[in-house]
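Progress note, project year one: complex with LXKY6Z5U.
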Amino acid sequence: MAYETILVETRGKVGLITLNRPKALNALNSQMQEDVVAALQAYEADETIGAIVITGSEKAFAAGADIKEMHQKSYIDMYMADFFSGWDAMLRIRKPIIAAVSGYALGGGCELAMMCDFIIAGDNAKFGQPEITLGVMPGMGGSQRLTRFVGKSKAMDMCLTGRMMDAEEAERSGLVSRVVPAATLVDEALKAAEKIASFSLPAVLMNKEAVNRSYETTLTEGLRFERRVFHSMFALEDQKEGMEAFSDKRAPNFRNQ
Ligand SMILES: CC(C)(O)CC(=O)SCCNC(=O)CCNC(=O)[C@H](O)C(C)(C)COP(=O)(O)OP(=O)(O)OC[C@H]1O[C@@H](n2cnc3c(N)ncnc32)[C@H](O)[C@@H]1OP(=O)(O)O
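Model obtained:
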């Protein structure tokens, strides 16, 4: 399938989506939202794919929602279109998605990265929620997800001052899982995705679901959910294979069953 605003390549069991509006620093317009969601849904349906990486350019993962597309819209335009709600489809993707962030991840760019399952940052990455400088506030989840990642104090600081956080601070604050040299960012993200894709797909999906559940429920309910899902994994052939392979001192051969 051809996309207008992204490049899509398959590398073995990994889907790689590259945001591709370089002249606008990958500003996220409605077309890009449609393209990214469609590509993710295609990878979700593709049985050969075990994990997905989303990346941008060296200068910008994405410099935010497209201000030029938005700025003339009225309240009723935004409300009736439920503007940005198209991104919610990303949350229904069950396969893991890694954001590989180089350069600017601002506003909607930071929010898109946070919608992924984890973020690997290049050492040149800069994160921010600068909406306050435009007279608005985050609208793709920044005020909620950033607060969960980095805590109230830093999230307030970022949203109220609009300042950027560099890669080192982002790692220290828990926003990103690791920082790597910008030159090797995509390779490192692909390596992580290949590792995930080498495991049992149902086990991967259940791990993702359980970690995400911790954001939505109490500790008691989350622990109960984890135990039930863990028990259910003993119905998988891949559980037998994984544990037998350990005992036999050989590599497991997972069949996603
Ligand atoms: C989703 C919500 C609700 O949360 C809201 C948002 O996301 S609002 C957007 C938040 N993002 C920003 O406010 C960042 C805006 N961009 C910048 O501040 C700067 O571009 C920069 C600091 C990231 C980089 O500066 P510089 O290197 O000087 O490049 P520029 O010349 O400014 O940009 C190059 C080119 O890209 C266009 N651009 C950049 N960001 C956006 C954007 N968010 N929307 C639309 N277009 C953007 C910029 O206008 C330039 O294009 P031309 O004007 O030269 O055609």
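The first helix runs from residue 30 to 45.
Residues 126 and 166 are 5 Å apart (CA to CA).
No further modelling is planned for this target in the current period.
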